[in-house]
Amino acid sequence: MIGRIPTLLKRSEEKYAIGLQYITPDLEEGEYISLSECTISPSEVGGLAKVGNVVVEDDQVSQFIEAGVIGNDYYVKFKTTTSGGNVYEDSIFVKVREH
Question: For the domain 7-96, what is the CATH code?
Fold first, then answer.
């Protein structure tokens, strides 16, 4: 998805996992995800928050999120490293709304 950031709407009381899947050409045959870190910006009191650590499963990374200030927008950023030494930085744009 070149040039586009996935966007989702979330209610402040919801808590669930969001994440990304890496496919060819990001992962070559036999290559796997060795590490992933997640950050949320902006960081604010009562804002969108991580619950636990990033989960890496096969070709996917995910992070449980909760809370968020109604009307605010956040970037959930994943920095993912593969066994082949590739490093990807991807984001998901989260809009907290009462939809």
Answer: 2.60.40
